[in-house]
Specification:
By secondary structure, the chain is an all-alpha fold. The chain has one domain. The chain contains 6 helices and 2 strands.
């Protein structure tokens, strides 16, 4: 696969996950408590920094572009993460259609593991993107777990 095709494919996978929020402006995201983000890159002994999820500050397109363009993660890792994102998205579609074998709690666990893995990979090298992803975690899950929002993808 050529580099251009890889970038296009990666972008489509991320859009499928993050597009639900951009398409559904009527989605009411739950308020989330402060989320632990990362230990400071220079001061590893510092307390965990916190980011409060703010639905108003969330920009799905900007987040998708940041994940696609970050140099904190290599191309093959991005492809692997995109594949897992695609599998989670398909499982959620199956769940909402009533044909999936997984429960919403199991899908939430897979989603959390994926987000945690991405945050672990980027937390020290791209702190701004890590903060954006932490803030988007709950609004994104709200869109994916809602049967009407996910159909818009």
């Amino acid at each position: 696969m050529k580099r251009t095709e890889t970038i296009v494919w990666w972008r489509q996978r991320l859009l499928s996950l993050f597009g639900a929020l951009a398409l559904s402006s009527s989605l009411a995201a739950p308020t989330a408590p402060a989320l632990p983000l990362h230990r400071g890159a220079q001061d590893h002994g510092a307390e965990l920094q916190h980011v409060v999820a703010s639905p108003a500050a969330f920009d799905a397109r900007h987040l998708e572009e940041g994940l696609r363009n970050t140099r904190a993660v290599g191309v093959f890792t991005k492809l692997s993460l995109a594949g897992e994102a695609k599998r989670i998205h398909a499982a959620l579609l199956d769940y909402h259609a009533g044909t999936g074998g997984a429960t919403l709690e199991q899908l939430r666990e897979r989603y959390d593991l994926l987000i945690n893995e991405i945050m672990l990979l980027i937390q020290d090298k791209d702190t701004d993107l890590s903060a954006e992803l932490a803030a988007a975690r709950e609004p994104l899950w709200a869109a994916l777990s809602d049967a009407e929002s996910i159909k818009a993808l």
